[in-house]
Amino acid sequence: MATSQRDVRNRIDAVKNIRKITRAMEMVAAARLRRAEQRIEALRPYADALRRMTRQAAEAAGDLPRLPILQEHDQVRAVGLLLIAGDRGLAGAFNSSIVRAGVAAGRAHESEGHRPVYFASGKRPASSLTFRGLEPAETFTGFTDRPSYADARRIGERLMAAYVDDEVDQVEIFYNGYISPVSQDLRRETLLPLQRATVLEEEEDEDEDRDEERSEKRALVEYEPDPEEILKRLVPDYVEISIYRALLESTASEHGARMTAMRNASDNASTLIDDLTLEMNRARQAEITQEIMEVVAGAEGLAG
User: Fold this and answer.
1) Distance from C-alpha of 31 to C-alpha of 180, rounded to nearest angstrom
2) pLDDT in tens, 163-207
3) pTM of the predicted structure, to 2 decimals
């Protein structure tokens, strides 16, 4: 019985040590999350404005300029799928949800006769794809905790080169959009070609008055140089800023998911400690009862 108590006590100590680690990781994730939220809030207005400018310039240009990056391919033979997740785990379903969505999209494209070409941002999606036998065409790692615009530019240049060189005929990105520390929204966006890109889609919930107001504002816009020339300069920036925003959203989502996962782990550890403590107390009570019974039996034997 004493050995059993010692084993339970050792388990309690081990769980307490784990709880210290998970609480520390939760606090680190919370601090990083606050910084990531600030970066997102600073970028969103600029990214939205750039997307709006690109959409308006594309509408004003009518027929898109004869540039390889702006030309829609005659047929879709291969589709590039960029999966954006993290370098590390311990974040709940944050990484696995992206991989599942990307692989499911790849299978759907295969059923339509399109060949999926995978790109991975983060060690986790890269290793998961390799494990599934879906070797990524390019992997980008080492910056998921704090991505920079240079990282987005490097990814964007690779994807644009793949599109221009006919390696892929369409590019889609998958990432977790940040809503709150406990809520992330898995997003799938078409990046290229521009004709199918999310950037050209109008907001579905805008009413007619707002549409008229926007049309009046557009009528007052005069482009210098012409819309075609402006669009040539905007498209690379649009691709890079869209990827950069996805990286920042993914980073904040990762920190939020890790903070939530570590908090749940700490709570579960506390529950387990309470259960083990109760088990140890019961074992101690049983041992004391057994000793009392032995003393009583011995006293009765002497009395007899």
Assistant:
1) 14
2) 999 999 999 999 999 998 888 899 999 998 887 776 555 443 443
3) 0.81
CA 203 from chain center: how many Å? 24
Question: Could you tell me if 112 and 203 are in contact, meaning their C-beta atoms sit under 8 angstroms apart?
Answer: no
Q: State how beta strands 78-84 and 115-121 pair.
A: parallel
Give pLDDT tens digits for 59-105. 776 666 667 777 888 899 999 999 999 999 888 899 999 999 999 99
Tens digits of residue pLDDT in 207-255: 344 454 455 444 456 766 777 777 778 888 889 999 999 999 999 999 9
Give one word for 28, left, alpha or beta, with left for phi > 0 and alpha for psi -120 to 50: alpha
CA distances from 89 to 3, 144, 255 (A): 36, 12, 11
Do residues 196 and 190 lie in contact, with contact meaning Cβ atoms separated by under 8 Å? yes
Length of the chain: 304
Domain ranges of the chain: 26-200+212-259
Q: Residue 280 contacts by C-beta under 8 Å, 6 or more apart in sequence? A: 5, 8, 9, 12
Q: What is the arrangement of strands in the sheet containing 183-192, beginning at the earlier edge strand?
A: 138-140, 115-121, 78-84, 170-180, 183-192
Per DSSP bridges, beta strands 170-180 and 183-192 are antiparallel
Q: What is the largest CA-CA distance in the chain?
A: 116
Give the CATH superfamily of 26-200+212-259: ATP synthase, F1 complex, gamma subunit (3.40.1380.10)
> Is 156 a residue whose pLDDT tops 70?
yes
